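Blinded run. Sample ID left blank on purpose so nobody reads anything into the name before looking at the predicted structure. Input follows.
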Amino acid sequence: MQSCDTPFGTLNLERYPPTQNPTLQAFDTADLYLLKSAAELPVSDLPILVINDNFGTLACALAKAEPARKVHSWSDSKLAQLGLQSNLLANDLPTDAVQFIDSQQTPSGPYQCVLMRVPKSLTLMQDQLFRLRPALAEQAQVISGAMVKHLPHAAGDLLAQYIGPYQASLAWKKSRLLTSTMDPALSPDKPELETRYELPASTFQLLNKPGVFSREKLDNGTRALLSSLPTGQEGGCIVDLGCGNGALGIMAAQLNPDAQLVFIDESYAAVASAQHNFSQAFPERAAEFVVSDGLTEIEDGSADLILCNPPFHQQQAVGDEMAKRLFEQSYSALNTTGSLMVVGNRHLGYHVKLRAWFEKVEQLSGNPKFVVLKASN
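Blinded prediction complete.
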């Protein structure tokens, strides 16, 4: 837990999931710059909307403000949602002090002030700005912030295209704000942001909603794991963990027609994409779709096979903590004869890390960059 001084009071904050890396914080100066800007605005009876709030720093600070403010938080991330809930409790704030809105819903507003963390995906930002516009009050301000090194030039162009003219702030502690004012004369066309491509060795097309990982083409790690998928899972439960658009689970379903499929991701857009793609591929077949923190909502010992192309970053932080956490969760979720199939870059050394939980770790296939591993007990 780390202390964070904001214009609305001091907060105790922690990343979610909690990290063992003391250099990683739940907030940065872009968060503080956004809050500083919000504190200078007149208090309004309208709710404040925060978008892409990584761990709830923005929403918790605003919920702590005096006089009290109505706060809405809009995000694609279940981990961000859980981080918000955890940090509200850590600061003695009720969990309903902030209304969370997932990415597959659209905020209704009206909003006079919006604080936005610029996301890594500009397609996601474009989608958010277009859908946000009808919810903005007259002369509303959308204040977008990021660390300077992570702020793409196109972010300002999107604000001008969908909201109105913007001004860039001076850099402050390596962060910058872009403040856009609602222009009622704008009438932007609806952008076509969903993409589609074919799933190899099948007749299926994969739809990708804005913000979904590998939305332009199938990533090479998933491609490597696809070629190693087993057959013969008779009636067993196969989990596509970190499912993205559902490529692994859909191919596993084709190879194992009697298996029960479960698709899990922390991204609401990813699970929505996977659900659409599975229903198109197998319109008469049932499956389970879960937006969650990994396997935390899966019963221990219930899975026969888990497929995983683990993430190696959370927001801008790169590391193997997320992967190791999924490996530990998989150990608990698998039954006694079950196995985990993982793909990763060779240099990540997953074969060593998996042995912390699994007795048997074997290589199924590989190429100069990726290796496919099977872990079991």
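Unblinding after everyone has recorded impressions. The chain has a mean pLDDT of 95.
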